[in-house]
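Hypothesis: this fold can be encoded by more than one sequence.
Test: take the structure tokens below, design a sequence, compare later.
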């Protein structure tokens, strides 16, 4: 049974669960990244594969295995939010995810297409995902496809095509507001369109540097959080940024993001 906001039949602001991504601490070991993320009060971790040379997921695969990763997360009282598999792809890490207890794996979509081809291209994309969806089912996992600029999944129309054509409970959307803002699309509308197929939410705004994080840049996250509440979203809310800060700077920046989100989710 999925836990979180929707566990009792509907979202509640007081049930907000926060995670953050291990690549924020890519210069550190996975153990140290977990320690820092737990010390900041995050309840979950999104573990990254080798995007921008983040070593964490490949290290877990080679050195820890599912049992070792479960033990590491348990020591720090961290839930497994997700595996981010932009480099390597879900199939490489599917067994590890299953051995760790299952959960969400994230990867990208496909090349963009003209609007008149959207339905046929989305249908073909989803058809091509069937082997990965079957793999997800075998390993108690769900595959979340991230929207991105200049990609097949990049607009409200593409969200609607995805949701209308997808029939698998093991497949859904990882929503990145950064890219929607870049295209002038409404994040709240995208959340509503994704509905029950929303599996992951980046708390991430389209600004430079640390201003990508909640509480740093100018975006008011309250409408987004209320939209998540309205659809009964039961996943984690994941403050996120691209770019490198030194570990202590990153910890401080994430602490501000954590406090900002908690304050705006009070009943």
């Amino acid at each position: 049974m999925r836990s979180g906001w929707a566990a009792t039949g509907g979202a509640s602001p007081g049930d907000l669960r926060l995670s953050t991504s291990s690549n924020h601490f890519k210069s550190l070991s996975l153990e140290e990244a977990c320690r820092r993320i737990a010390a900041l009060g995050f309840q979950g971790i999104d573990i990254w594969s080798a995007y921008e040379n983040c070593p964490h997921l490949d290290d877990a695969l080679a050195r820890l295995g599912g049992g070792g990763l479960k033990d590491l997360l348990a020591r720090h009282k961290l839930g497994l939010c997700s595996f981010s598999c932009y480099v390597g792809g879900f199939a490489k890490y599917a067994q590890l995810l299953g051995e760790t207890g299952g959960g969400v794996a994230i990867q990208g979509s496909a090349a963009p297409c003209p609007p008149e081809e959207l339905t046929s291209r989305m249908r073909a994309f989803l058809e091509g995902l069937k082997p990965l969806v079957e793999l997800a089912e075998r390993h108690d996992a769900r595959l979340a496809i991230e929207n991105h600029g200049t990609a097949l999944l990049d607009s409200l129309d593409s969200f609607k095509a995805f949701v209308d054509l997808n029939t698998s409970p093991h497949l859904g959307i990882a929503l990145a507001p950064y890219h929607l803002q870049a295209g002038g699309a409404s994040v709240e509308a995208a959340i509503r369109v994704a509905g029950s197929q929303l599996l992951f939410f980046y708390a991430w705004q389209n600004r430079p540097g640390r201003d990508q994080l909640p509480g740093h840049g100018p975006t008011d996250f309250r409408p987004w959080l209320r939209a998540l509440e309205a659809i009964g979203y039961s996943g984690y809310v994941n403050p996120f940024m691209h770019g490198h800060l030194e570990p202590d700077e990153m910890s401080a920046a994430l602490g501000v993001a954590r406090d900002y989100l908690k304050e705006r989710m009070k009943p």
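The chain has one domain: 16-262. Residues 1-11 have pLDDT under 50 and may be disordered.
Hypothesis status: open.
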